[in-house]
Amino acid sequence: MKAIVSICCMLSLLLLITADEEEDVLSSIVRDRSHIEETLRLAAEENSGDYAAALQKLMKIYHSSIKPMEQAYKYNELRQHEISDGEITSKPMVLFLGPWSVGKSSMINYLLGLQDLPYQLYTGAEPTTSEFTVIMHGEKIRSVEGIVMAADSSRSFSPLEKFGQNFLEKLVGIEMPHKMLERVTFVDTPGIIENRKQQERGYPFNDVCQWFIDRADLIFVVFDPTKLDVGLELEMLFRQLKGRESQIRIILNKADNLATQDLMRVYGALFWSLAPLINVTEPPRVYVSSFWPYDYAPDTSRELFKREEISLLEDLNQVIENRLENKIAFIRQHGIRVRIHGLLVDRYVQTFKERMSFFSDPDLVFKEIVDDPDKFFIFKSILAKTNVSKFDLPNRDAYRDFFGVNAVTNFKPLTAQCSYMGGCLLEKIERAITADLPALLSSLTSKNPIFSSCEATGCGEKPKNRYRRN
Prior knowledge:
eight-stranded mixed beta sheet
């Protein structure tokens, strides 16, 4: 009996020694994260007073000059995108997309330093993320249900209610006090599974992805070198990314799993697979590395992976630094679309009044106009009389649906949208687009010239501001 007890004690001691050794080994192979805080300058204090004052000016311009025309001509029913105060004040959004088990959640855990903590995102070899997970800043660590996020008007997620309760059950928010999350919000998405039908998700997956794509400041599309198959769902995703190529960054993750020669072949195969889906002159930037907390595999391109990681962090930092500039540019783009919509509705109204006579049937008259707007020069007159680009004009069919819900007689012409105290809607929105918003943007750039932290990190590449033309 004593011999059995002594054997058990020795086994327990060996297990403890083995566990301690394993912990020491794991701690020794965890990579240093100091370059993340250095590149993103998380220790630097921000001048929040100037930022808040500029945001207040931006909100005032939007509410006084752009939103009145939105409401007068029901723009949100055409685009289904009415900007809320929460969206104006929201932080830059970084969206993670890609097939299942390519390391999206692990990458977020690594960037935020959440590994081995109880609230890290769950990862695994099997498809693990079935929800849209929003990781955002909060005073304490807590989970927020999607229904609560959509009901809170102070957040920017209230429009997600239109996708139904089934989706809101698949939406979750995680709040935590983190320096990086004070400046940016991460969104982790369910992995693409090519053999799964859309209806099995229980909600319109592509429509939800489009909502996040439209609002993302940076989009990371993550791939695993061993899983480069492009199926129907991935093709659909890249079709949704059309026009957003400047925000897309391709991540070839888990790169240290391959030898250098094999990695070169995979890099070429990735471009070959994506070339038909990204039909642009300048393809998105591709980052090749392994974004997780543990050390790179031996005999791999460690220096290359480290430089690629710093370059990606610089890209992220540029988005953070330009967040207010990008927000102003976004509101200005929105104002241009609202102005075009108001001009088009005004033209429809005027054409209807010109065609109407005492004996005319109003329904038949307007049906003729809305079915063939080119016959009445609806769109061409806008191009001829204003400085609107033909590439900015919306789809003609959208107005057939729009006026199918909203009678043309419900709208007043622009000449009647004026008041003695408030001025004219068209003049106010044009002043906002041509003077007020550019002046606000100019005041920011003169106070805070763009500083590239490549000078500190030596990354050698300055990411582009997508709203600036060289």
